Structures
1.
Amino acid sequence: EVQLVESGGGLVQSGGSLRLSCSASGFAFSNYWMNWVRQAPGKGLEWVAHIKLDGNDKNYVDSVKGRFTISRDDAKNSLFLQMNSLRPEDTAVYYCARDGDGELDYWGQGTLIIVSS
Amino acid sequence: DVVMTQSPLSLPVTLGQPASISCRSSQSLVSGDGNTYLNWFHQRPGQSPRRLIYKVSNRDSGVPDRFSGSGSGTDFTLKITRVEAEDVGLYYCMQGTHWPRTFGQGTKVEIK
């Protein structure tokens, strides 16, 4: 069974940093592209970042470029999101999601980030 | 960025009746490889999103056959033949053809 479990969320002050982790199991993690998607409270879904195999190719939504970094550790079946210079508008539930048969076929349960001003 | 526009944004439906959601993109979603990367997701209150449809019309494993996707180019539709109580929640379309990937605003389906 495919499982994605996010961790690392919490309350942080504006300008601070946080590192999210996503632990994957039930599939060959190294063979899949991975993503982070976020959802602000009461709002819709926003794709944030994507990483291809071996971590050599990454894409980001403009609003996080230069502040967030996606990475992966295939030996540990883990995906990460390093978030720096956090802003109140980054407050959201952050989901880890796999790309299979297209995009975002499996999602984690999400982890909540609250950025206080 | 490709803008995805869903309509309606709110859809009250009667149990057992059909429902349809439209999704239009600001650019063609036909990729250079010939595929059209248009997905549909369902999110129940308090839950993570679940993908229902990928590449316009392919149902994910375990998705009831009352759900179907259709369309081409810039115009896409999700149809539910007979709405059941478990179908309530938010529905999102998302394109994966162009970077950045973008979602529609979401359509809230509720029972009348």
Note: The CA atoms of residues 47 and 67 of chain A lie 15 Å apart.
2.
Amino acid sequence: DVVMTQTPLSLSVTPGQPASISCRSSQSPLHSDGRTYLDWYMQKPGQPPQLLIYEVSNRFSGVPDRFSGSGSGTDFTLKISRVEAEDVGVYYCLQTIQVPWTFGQGTKVEIK
Amino acid sequence: EVELVESGGDLVQPGGSLRLSCAASGFTFSNYWMNWIRQAPGKGLEWVAHIKPDGSEKNYVDSVKGRFTISRDNAKSFLYLQMNSLRAEDTAVYYCARDGRILPYWGQGTLVTVSS
């Protein structure tokens, strides 16, 4: 199985400051179709996960532009340019290049 | 508007069975891959299974192979998860989610508790 490793596992951020979460995959999520199947999800307390970023760097509809994704090969990053109170939650990366699809352990983001 | 509503979660004894349902609306159900994803209490997300639009391809995480069966009824726009030989470690909120390699739509989840 493809192992997804996120760092850090928790993050405490002052509002208005940036935040960054790393995700490393044990195998490249680059498909033969040229797409890289690495997505980011955020789960607010008591809610289902919601899609933020798909295929490394594409923001899903309605996602604020303070969220951005980057990376290649086996190393990927989710950045929040200026953290807001509503960004509190747990962030997960997900690879869908190989079954079983696998999530990272999750990174809990809190506000200072 | 896309809506996914799970049901069927319950308290069940180890070794028991349960069938989860996911009612889909707001889109042409028969056009999309569908998934089940679970989350144990206080834990992270685990993809469980998915099924092709016409039901001809199904994949599972190893921990549920031979015990769980994913299926769908395209005429009724329902997704199912038949869970047999349930174990304590299957205790989780089970979400259905739409689409193939990207999961833009999720239901609110249904809680399955396996305990004696």
Note: The mean pLDDT of chain A is 97.
